[in-house]
Design a protein that fits this description.
The chain is mainly alpha-helical and 312 residues long. The chain folds into 2 domains: 1-10 and 47-146, no CATH class; 151-298, no CATH class. Helix content is 69%, strand content 8%. It contains 10 helices and 5 strands. A 3-stranded antiparallel beta sheet has the order 2-3-4, covered by helices on one side. The protein has a two-stranded antiparallel sheet with strand order 1-5.
Length: 312
């Protein structure tokens, strides 16, 4: 479902078929996870990573109260700040993320304890998304008094638009990059005439980098319960793979446009581009997790990865 939300709010409003597929897969996995277990098998009570961390400072009973309470307070505080301080009642991406994070805290104690790992991942993932897309961006706006649009526009130009055009020129495509009114533009040749495509923030790789960072960090914290140099190295490689896959996606998109015209470019951008990006990230994820598991098994062969701790 998170993939469907990403595709709708960030990846483009035209790819409804992919949204339906993502929602269908997510719903099927949810129903499969709720399949009745053998009643004769005793199911131990598990404590999630969030509870284990908080019980260093609080009792378990206090955690059961404070975690959902924190979710309610977060949603109410963010809504009040939006309405009375900012004066904006529109729902933006960061509002959706903060609301989902608050709801994940509210519902943290719901459901069987055997889903402690999954609940920890959701909470940590949304926490890091909130830090990246709400806290950091809003703090920048408050401290500098300048909209982040200017920063993202120049970041797109130097880290996305320029590398894409450079690769296209190396391939032999007549393409040029420009930055006009904080809008990144690529002009490319199609049958002797120049066509223009504008690169939005959703194509810049900033969103995808934030999403990858949040998902990967949440995953390794839940699976390995720590962050060491191997995980930091994997995170660094992941940033590069995320950037490179986004560049490759855009190069292929413009290359198709230069060969078959703008309608073909729009089709590849809406339906094929996201598959290229997800494919690269999936392959990287499988390879890097296999490597981290191998390193983990050598350092601590008796520690089961991703298993919550049973409570007494």
């Amino acid at each position: 479902m998170i993939a469907a939300v990403y595709n709708h709010y960030i990846g483009g409003h035209s790819a409804y078929l992919l949204e339906i597929i993502f929602l269908g897969i997510g719903a099927s996995l949810a129903l499969l996870s709720l399949w009745p277990q053998d009643k004769n098998t005793e199911q131990p009570e598990y404590e999630g990573l969030l509870v284990r961390f908080l019980t260093r400072f609080l009792s378990k009973e206090q955690c059961l109260i404070l975690i959902p309470l924190a979710g309610f307070v977060l949603i109410m505080a963010w809504s009040a700040w939006k309405l009375f301080v900012v004066g904006d009642a529109d729902l933006h991406m960061e509002d959706l993320i903060v609301t989902l994070f608050g709801l994940s805290l509210v519902l943290y104690n719901a459901g069987p304890s055997r889903f402690a790992v999954q609940k920890d991942f959701v909470v940590l993932y949304l926490l890091f998304l909130t830090i990246v897309f709400a806290v950091i961006w809003k703090l920048y706006t408050i401290i500098t008094g300048e909209s982040y649009v200017r920063v993202t526009a120049y970041a797109e130009y130097y880290f996305v638009t320029t590398p894409v055009v450079t690769l296209l020129q190396l391939i032999g495509v007549n393409a040029h990059a420009s930055l006009a009114n904080l809008s990144n533009i690529i002009d490319y040749e199609y049958h002797g005439r120049m066509l223009r495509v504008s690169i939005g923030t959703s194509c810049s790789g900033l969103y995808s980098t934030g999403l990858f960072f949040s998902a990967f960090l949440a995953f390794v914290l839940v699976r390995y319960n720590r962050v060491d140099r191997n995980i930091i190295a994997a995170l660094g490689v992941g940033f590069f793979v995320t950037w490179a896959s986004n560049i490759l996606r855009m190069v292929i998109t413009v290359l198709v446009g230069s060969a078959y015209g703008h309608p073909a470019l729009a089709f590849v951008h809406s339906y094929i581009g996201i598959l290229i990006f997800v494919g690269f990230i999936t392959v990287f994820w499988l390879l890097i997790v296999r490597w981290l598991d191998r390193v983990e098994s050598k350092s601590n062969p008796e520690d089961p990865k991703g298993m919550p701790v049973a409570s007494n």
